[in-house]
Design brief:
Layout: E1 4-6, H1 12-18, E2 22-24, H2 33-40, E3 45-48, H3 56-59, E4 66-69, H4 79-85, E5 88-90, H5 97-112, H6 115-123, E6 144-148, H7 152-161, E7 167-171, H8 177-183, E8 185-187, H9 190-196, E9 199-202, H10 216-221, E10 227-230, H11 239-247, E11 253-256, H12 267-271, E12 275-277, H13 286-304
Parallel strand pairs: 1-2, 1-3, 3-4, 4-5, 6-7, 6-9, 7-8, 9-10, 10-11, 11-12
The structure holds NADP nicotinamide-adenine-dinucleotide phosphate (NAP).
Amino acid sequence: MKSVFITRPIPESGLALLFPHVTVTTSPKPLTPEEIAFQAEGNTAILCQLTDKIGEQVLSLPGLRVLATMSAGTDHIDLSASRRLGVTVTNTPGCLTEATAELAFALILATARRLPESDRFLRAGRFKGWDPLLLQGQTIVGKRLGIVGAGRIGQEVARMSKGFGMEVLYLSRTPKPEFEAACAARSASLDEIAATCDVVSVHTPLTPETRHLVDAAFLAKMKPTAILVNTARGPVVDEAALVDALRQKRIFAAGLDVFEEEPAVSAGLLELENVVLLPHIGSATFETRNRMATMAASNVLAVLRGEPPPNPV
Ligand code: NAP
């Protein structure tokens, strides 16, 4: 029997496609690689999440043909081992673009206008009436936005920014003429983005080249009024350097959905008012998570039928 092991409970829409050849872990927390290898043994497919570290131990399970991750990012998977061991890897790109871009934009507005801090202020009983000097933030309309990694999500954030009349600069490895035309965007160096943008939003995958792309030197070049938003992967930003920059108010604020040592968050960040912290909810809308689950399940089914999967990595 061809069967599928699922490492975390997923939306019903995905389970229904795989029923009845499916086992879902009963563990309430993410499994260790050893636990995945033990529980998935004997299955032809594994449907995993970005919280699962997938290496040789799992990929070399006898009979395993496909590993379908319910995420766009694949930095949690040893792709060279999967190629060597002949296990097809698939992901769920595209269906989470709008949700993640929405969240990046929510972070831009929340940091610029100090929304969580204002909410905390009011709940603490400190609101004594309108005050001309109270909780001033940064205007977003008409400002310059830097997109670091102008792929699907980065481009969508740029499109959304047009509603706010923002000027768009972007960093990418390859030129994007259609994007430039659609968003009046201009390609720029990392240095120019750091030094001149009012908002920098990070959207590269995590790779050896992008680890700490936003480092102490980048942060030192940013304007004191600038905002940094990261909805990509934690290690793309040097979290210790960011804590320093925020603590010394060398930049105005940061908005983070992802962290270097997830789910741990630097103690320094937790103490600061000028950072908005979210628990990796970029794709967490009902619609998107349903689509991610059905996409991952469809990839599994295609490989088990001997067809090319819709989203090979
Ligand atoms: P994508 O379409 O592949 O876009 C990534 C972009 O990054 C590409 O345009 C690529 O440039 C660029 N890039 C890669 N390496 C670079 C480098 N060294 N320097 C400059 N640019 C570089 O991916 P996506 O769908 O937009 O997703 C981006 C990332 O967001 C994912 O990998 C994932 O880690 C993260 N994500 C997070 C959440 C969340 O819940 N917070 C949700 C979804 C995704 P080229 O086009 O030139 O190759």
